[in-house]
Amino acid sequence: MQTKHFVICAVAALLAVGCCKPAGVIKTPVPTRPAGQQDVIGLTAEPIETVHIGVVGLGMRGSEAVNRLAQIPGAEIVALCDLLPDRVEQSQAILAGRGKPAAEGAYSGAQESWRGLCEQENVDLVYICTDWLNHYPIAMYAMDCGKHVAIEVPAALDMDEIWGLIDKSEQTRRHCMMLENCIYDFFEMTTLEMSQRGLFGEIIHAEGAYCHNLDPYWDEYWNNWRLDYNQKHRGDVYPTHGIGPICQVLDIHRGDRMTTLVSMDTKSFNGAKIATNHAGKEVTEFANGDETSTLIRTEKGKTMLIEHDVMTPRPYSRMYQVVGTDGYASKYPIGEYCLRVDKPADKVDARHISDEKVYRDEEMEALQAGYRNVILTPEFEELAKSVGGHGGMDFIMDYRLVYCLHHGLPLDMDVYDLAEWCCVAPLSRVSLEHGSMPVEVPDFTRGAWNRVQGFSYALAEE
């Protein structure tokens, strides 16, 4: 979905420079913060003894979330909602299997059954796992009802939705967090710790991606919603798994911020063919390119590369590569670290093109052991792996969310993270639709991006 603001700005930019000259950067408007509204940097809310959770959307992701949340101390699922009543019953069975009391399950059978769940008095947190198109209205209504919200990825699809969630969180002082699980992968968490301890020097470039052949999964999406969305929308429509972890490493809105992006894509070679197979009739138009690449520059002169590809048999990859002045980390296609080796001038061998130490396999594991993430104790890592959810990172995400709400602490991801990670979708589309012109990335904090210096996890005092 494209907002009128971007079209107006793009046309103005083109007219200002003439059709035969570089058009510069497409400006992205920043709405004025309403009077009396304050930012939510470091937002805290009253501690919650037992976090009562209502889960909306009980398909693939939602039912798995029910199973994980049922195993977190201090959390209780008190309400379940899905358009299909049998899914509510299946999740009730999950709770029963975990020895948990049944949740209120009357919220099903109608398109807006979720309203009743949001209005349920004892719900503290609304956990949203629906299709993408329903994330925004549910989250907005839940915050109006005084609930904290956690929204599956991507939480917002266009700039109007992004600004709407920001303003609603600021107005209600309720947490609005996107459920980006990939920041809790063990490699990413360890590499973040290494970066913060200076092992790689200053981080100057990072790469992230979502490359995942979805051929086996298209039929699993209710009412074909995901393939339909790709057919109608150009740009990197699913950027958050790739960009989330690297934004943490680069301290985005915690000392630096994204300023400009530019995107390029291939034509749709496979998309229309896949849509034709699913529709049972010929589909000739498919907006999403098979491969989309986006370059982003930050205020401090650092860069990011983000890729999206769900249409080719390319092996699964979130890329996750971190480049520093003195070191390098890579998870895909092979896990490795490279560190600069300083040698006296008389020891340099000119026959060797490079001179760095490469850590892989056992050496890599030994190096990682010395940089254990502060929240990733051996016991907690083992617990996360035993519960599961993409190898354990989903459980860590849920556990941290409940932990921070229980102790009244700032969450690991705030509404500005949500905005920055989601904005790649609509802004990449603007760039593509105007010949890969650079597009301005707005300051979603409206001036507070430099107040906090460096990402950190909030921890309760023992």
Quick description:
This protein is an alpha/beta fold and 462 residues long. It is 34% helix and 17% strand. The protein has a 9-stranded mixed β-sheet with strand order 14-13-12-11-7-10-9-8-15.
Provide an overview of this structure.
The protein is an alpha/beta fold and about 450 residues long. Among the domains are: about 130 residues, NAD(P)-binding Rossmann-like Domain (Rossmann fold, 3-Layer(aba) Sandwich); about 190 residues, Dihydrodipicolinate Reductase, domain 2. It contains 15 helices and 15 strands. The protein has a 9-stranded mixed β-sheet with strand order 14-13-12-11-7-10-9-8-15. A hairpin with a 4-residue loop joins strand 9 and strand 10.
How would the blueprint of this fold be written?
Blueprint: H1 4-17, E1 51-56, H2 60-69, E2 75-82, H3 85-97, E3 104-108, H4 114-119, E4 125-128, H5 135-144, E5 148-151, H6 159-172, E6 176-178, H7 186-196, E7 203-211, H8 225-232, H9 240-249, E8 258-265, H10 271-279, E9 292-298, E10 303-309, E11 321-324, E12 327-330, E13 336-340, E14 356-359, H11 361-369, H12 378-387, H13 393-407, H14 415-422, H15 424-433, E15 439-440
Parallel strand pairs: 1-2, 1-4, 2-3, 4-5, 5-6, 7-10
Antiparallel strand pairs: 7-11, 8-9, 8-15, 9-10, 11-12, 12-13, 13-14
Which features does this protein show?
Dihydrodipicolinate Reductase, domain 2; Rossmann fold; disordered N terminus; 462 residues; 6-stranded parallel β-sheet; 9-stranded mixed β-sheet; alpha/beta
